């Protein structure tokens, strides 16, 4: 990849530089019907991942009461989940590259999804003690890290390179939709049953998703997609239908020597720290202001109402204007949103602030994922695994105990000022990233 950032006009750029995503001249994406089908399935998979991640914060007040925990102790429940995520992301990322790209990624992905389905069922049936519940967070974390890592790489390999930002952005709308759906589902579950029943949502969502992917993610279907891409003079996501690595160290070395990958890890670490630190205790903050637990769970997912807008718009726009251009605006939007959370003092202010945050909350992730896959397409699984594993897991391991400590000793205002400062630091690694898309100006 060239070290020169192509933030110049199309006329000045001349021939397409080697390794650069050709970018899109149009904001209207084009894809084969099977590309759209894969997009639906992977979006539903991300929705399941989002619901899984949102269940714990939503039912955390009930868990704290059941097991007599303080905020710092409750933070460690999330930390062990993130520990499992680190293992799952790296292991399944490497495994998916080793088994094969393209249609073969479905094989690895289904295993990761199945672990989450089993973990959700076991949490309902066997989490009678704190130790049992604590330990069951490990396989749930492994599934989260493995399924998201392979999921992002999978969807990117069923769409033309010109529309990669759109595809990754749309598939990631499963997160905001899941965030709102989680709040609504948990509110219903808590009114009708207990917090353990909430974890049954995972197998109910996961089983039909796996069945759908088995039918769509075949070699013949991928051949049809590639034939359509060639016919319409677009760019294949990879030259071959599938490739596999010879050794596990080959993709690791490639990822760890790529500056875009390393800077993406740092950038995502900062974003995910802020997300984990804020979302884990949102329901606790609302309950502290007199909001009922079920209503607080619903409000905590309000960002999902607008989150899909930010992801589709910024993911698609990054295909045209560049990944870095989009990220600058998203960092500023996050900082303003985190500072606005200081003023959440009830249901109304909670709805307003979190709906505003939804315009920015999830958008940095698909834009950065697209940047990373642009930068290292052959080893997308391993690169995604390293980024999600290190950034997501380490941020979660550190963020929730630190946030619990700050809230216990200094309050929510200090917590959000601290998080806004962390987010603003993201401009530093962003400046070190090389643009991966050929920019097309209007």
TrEMBL record:
Compartments, as annotated in UniProt: Cell membrane
Entry's transmembrane regions: 34-56, 76-95, 107-136, 198-216, 261-284, 296-317, 329-359, 379-398, 410-431
Source organism, top-level taxon: Bacteria
Gene Ontology cellular component list: plasma membrane
Source species: Microlunatus soli
Keyword Membrane (UniProt): yes
Membrane topology listed for this record: Multi-pass membrane protein
Annotated segments matching region Disordered: 1-22
SUPFAM superfamilies according to UniProt: MFS general substrate transporter (SSF103473)
Single GO molecular function: carboxylic acid transmembrane transporter activity
Major facilitator superfamily (MFS) profile domain mapped to chain residues: 38-438
Pfam families (UniProt xref): MFS_1
Main location as per UniProt: membrane
Protein name in UniProt: Predicted arabinose efflux permease, MFS family
Keywords tagged on the record: Membrane, Transmembrane, Transmembrane helix
């Amino acid at each position: 990849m060239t070290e020169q950032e192509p933030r110049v006009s199309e006329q000045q750029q001349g021939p397409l530089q080697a390794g650069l995503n050709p970018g899109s001249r149009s904001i209207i994406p084009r894809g084969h019907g099977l590309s759209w089908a894969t997009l639906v399935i992977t979006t539903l998979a991300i929705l399941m991942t989002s619901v899984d991640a949102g269940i714990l914060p939503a039912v955390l007040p009930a868990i704290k009461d059941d097991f007599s925990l303080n905020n710092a102790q409750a933070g460690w429940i999330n930390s062990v989940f993130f520990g499992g995520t680190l293992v799952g992301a790296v292991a399944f990322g490497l495994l998916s590259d080793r088994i094969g790209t393209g249609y073969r990624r479905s094989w690895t992905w289904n295993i990761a999804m199945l672990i989450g389905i089993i973990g959700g069922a076991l949490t309902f049936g066997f989490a009678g003690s704190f130790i049992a519940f604590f330990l069951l967070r490990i396989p749930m974390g492994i599934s989260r890290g493995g399924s998201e890592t392979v999921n992002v790489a999978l969807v990117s390999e069923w769409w033309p390179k010109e529309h990669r930002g759109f595809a990754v952005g749309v598939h990631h709308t499963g997160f905001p939709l899941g965030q709102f759906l989680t709040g609504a589902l948990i509110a219903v579950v808590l009114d009708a049953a207990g917090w353990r029943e909430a974890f049954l949502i995972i197998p109910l969502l996961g089983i039909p998703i796996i069945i759908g992917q088995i039918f769509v993610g075949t070699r013949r279907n991928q051949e049809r997609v590639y034939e359509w891409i060639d016919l319409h003079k677009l760019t294949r996501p990879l030259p071959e239908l599938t490739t596999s690595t010879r050794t596990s160290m080959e993709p690791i070395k490639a990822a760890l020597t790529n500056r875009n990958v390393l800077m993406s890890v740092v950038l995502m670490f900062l974003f995910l720290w802020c997300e984990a630190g804020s979302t884990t205790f949102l329901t606790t903050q609302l309950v502290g202001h007199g909001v009922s637990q079920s209503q607080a769970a619903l409000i905590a997912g309000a960002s999902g109402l607008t989150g899909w807008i930010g992801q589709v718009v910024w993911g698609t726009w990054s295909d045209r204007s560049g990944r870095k251009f989009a990220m600058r605006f998203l960092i500023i939007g996050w900082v303003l949103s985190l500072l606005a959370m200081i003023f959440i003092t009830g249901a109304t202010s909670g709805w307003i602030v979190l709906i505003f945050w939804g315009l920015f909350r999830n958008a940095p992730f698909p834009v950065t994922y697209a940047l990373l896959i642009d930068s290292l397409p052959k080893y997308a699984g391993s690169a995604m695994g390293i980024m999600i594993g290190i950034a997501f897991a380490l941020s979660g391991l550190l963020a929730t105990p630190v946030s619990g400590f700050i809230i216990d000793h200094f309050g929510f205002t200090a917590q959000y000022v601290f998080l806004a400062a962390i987010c603003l630091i993201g401009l530093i690694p962003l400046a070190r990233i090389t643009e991966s898309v050929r920019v097309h100006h209007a």
